[in-house]
Every structure is written in structure tokens, then in C-alpha cells.
Design brief:
Blueprint: H1 2-31, E1 37-40, E2 43-48, E3 51-61, E4 71-75, E5 82-86, E6 91-93, E7 101-105, E8 116-125, E9 134-144, E10 154-161, E11 172-173, E12 182-186, E13 189-193, E14 199-209, E15 217-223, E16 229-234, E17 243-244, E18 254-264, E19 271-283, E20 299-307
Parallel strand pairs: 2-10, 9-11, 13-20
Antiparallel strand pairs: 1-3, 2-3, 3-8, 4-7, 4-9, 5-8, 6-7, 9-10, 12-14, 13-14, 14-18, 15-17, 15-19, 16-18, 19-20
Signal peptide: 1-30
Keywords: Signal
């Protein structure tokens, strides 16, 4: 069930992105027969209160014969680092391997013949800022135009993480976690009678993430006693058979508290309704559930009780 939910959500996003990019590809290729080029600066990620953030300056020189959108691909230097473009442009994400390739138009609309377009690509890395500089390799920007000189169409860029002391010197390679390290704790679920006779209650949940493995979100998937169903979450998030943890990706060491909401029908009597469990898992792109270093602390059990009022 969980895999189906994830695939459906991602398929909708990818389908929209593919339709967007596919519509303009033939025109872009026909309009740019020779020597459209791309150049970049160096990406410097600055320490912030949520990891590191920075923007890569990009320049595209367009030599097509008529106005056209131009397709662009961005390869992340660090898994999950891509944060958007400025001006903002809808993008489609490739599968993590372990970094993702991002597919967008060159931002700012159609390019005119001879135009030089400058924009930025934004990145954020959710890891604890260090007292020493770090570096990452593999970042790349490509414009896809059917160019007669493909060497002009792609540029690699260097990535540096500035230290908390302000230095970029003596950078060490940034090594990120490859498996998630998340855990959860839960309370108990107490349901009370509502005006319509049904039962409603909440399960307190605390989620903690220890490492900096790339992820898009964490999800909570409950298994409930007969007659009890999942009704939502607080803070409110779209839930089906599982609910995402509100707030997006986690910083290492970050904890969040939330609640899962449960309902039971009016005909169910008060008392002990049984035992439930909830499972925590992470997702990144459309690669499926992530592997955790200790799956044992990703599942917790709880009692479900219906308590009649006065």
C-alpha cells in the first residue's frame, strides 16, 4: 500500500513535468542549430541556521534563429541539494543515483536570438555546519539544444562549503550519510464520543532524525484495530493510508511532535479497542522507501481505548 501511494504521488508530478518539457523540446532544438552555450560560476554554500545554502550563477548565450524555450538539466553536487531556480521555473526530478538530475526550462521564458540570459540555481544541504571548509564534486549544468558544438552546452561546477569561521581554505570532501537514521516514540490513543455518536481521538508521536541522509519526507503508516481508521494528522497533512510528517526534510538531530487522528463508528462500545502500531519510513524522489540503519526503532505499538464521557 505504501509503495503504491508513493508511486502515485510521484507519477503525478513527473507526468506534469514531462508534458511541460516534452511540448517545447522540438521547437528548442529546431531554433538553436549552432553554438548555444552555458557557463557557470563556483557554488559557495554558506552556513545557516538550517544547514548550508547558496546560489550558482549561470549564463546561457542563445544563438538560435528565432525565439524559443531552451531545456536545461542540472546534476546536483550533493543528493537532495537542489532547491529551485531564480527566476522560479517548474522542474522535473530524475531518480536518485545517488544524486538527482533536474530537468527544467532555462528560467525567464523564451530566449530571443542572440540573447545572453543570467539566472541562478539555488541549493541547500541539510547537514550540521562544520568549523572547517568542505567540498563536493560532480555538479553540472547542461542546455539541450541540438547544438552543432556540444562542448559548449555543458559546464561542470565546483562546490565549496564555507566553514563556520568563514574560511574556504583546506576544504575536506563532504561525506554524507547513505542510510537514514530515524526513530519514533508514541503515547496512547484515547477516543472520546462525539456529538454524532462516533469516536475521535489522537495519538501523540515524536519523530527524530539523527543523520544527514538525503530525503524528501518521512511518513507515518499506522496499523489499527478492527473498526478504527486513520482520520488525519495535526498539523494537518494529506493522509491516505499514511501521513507525511509536517515540515519537510529534517536537519540532523531534529525532533518534531505531531498527532495522528483516529475515528471509530458510533456502534462501537467504550473500553479497550485493541493494540495498534505505527511505522516510520523515509522517501527520496521516486526511488521507493529508504533503508534505515536501525529498523527496530522505526515501529512503535500503542493501546487504543474508547472512553465514555460523563
Amino acid at each position: 500500500m505504501t509503495g503504491t501511494i508513493t508511486r502515485r504521488l510521484v507519477a503525478g508530478v513527473l507526468g506534469a513535468g514531462l508534458a511541460l518539457l516534452g511540448a517545447a523540446t522540438p521547437a528548442a532544438q529546431a531554433a538553436a542549430p549552432a553554438d548555444t552555450s552555458v557557463s557557470t560560476g563556483r557554488l559557495v554554500l554558506e552556513p545557516t541556521d538550517r544547514g548550508y545554502a547558496g546560489s550558482l550563477a549561470v549564463t546561457v548565450t542563445y544563438r538560435g534563429t528565432r525565439a524559443s524555450y531552451v531545456n536545461m538539466t542540472i546534476t546536483e553536487p550533493v543528493p537532495g541539494a537542489f532547491a529551485g531556480t531564480n527566476p522560479d521555473e517548474p522542474c522535473m526530478y530524475g531518480a536518485p543515483k545517488p544524486v538527482r538530475t533536474i530537468y527544467c526550462y532555462v528560467p525567464g521564458g523564451a530566449l530571443q536570438p542572440g540573447e545572453r540570459r543570467r539566472f541562478t540555481v539555488d541549493f541547500q544541504v541539510l547537514t550540521t555546519p562544520r568549523a572547517y571548509a568542505m567540498s563536493a564534486t560532480g555538479g553540472r549544468v547542461t542546455v539541450e539544444t541540438g547544438d552543432a558544438n556540444p562542448a559548449n552546452d555543458t559546464r561542470a561546477f565546483d562546490t565549496l562549503f564555507r566553514s563556520t569561521t568563514g574560511s574556504l581554505r583546506d576544504a575536506r570532501p563532504y561525506v554524507w550519510d547513505t542510510a537514514t537514521d530515524a526513530s519514533l516514540t508514541v503515547g496512547s490513543a484515547t477516543l472520546t464520543r462525539q456529538e454524532d455518536g462516533s469516536w475521535l481521538g489522537r495519538l501523540p508521536v515524536t519523530v527524530r532524525v539523527a543523520g544527514d541522509a538525503a530525503h524528501d519526507a518521512y511518513w507515518l503508516e499506522p496499523t489499527l484495530p478492527s473498526g478504527v481508521r486513520l482520520a488525519g494528522s495535526e498539523p494537518q497533512e494529506p493522509c491516505t493510508a499514511a501521513c507525511p510528517v509536517a515540515g519537510g526534510p529534517f536537519m540532523p538531530g531534529e525532533e518534531r511532535s505531531l498527532a495522528l487522528l483516529f475515528r471509530a463508528p458510533a456502534e462501537m462500545g467504550p473500553g479497550d479497542l485493541g493494540t495498534g502500531s505505527v511505522r516510520l519510513y523515509g522517501i527520496f524522489g521516486w526511488g521507493g522507501e529508504l533503508t534505515d540503519v536501525d529498523p527496530v526503532d522505526n515501529t512503535a505499538t500503542f493501546a487504543v481505548t474508547a472512553v465514555a464521557g460523563d
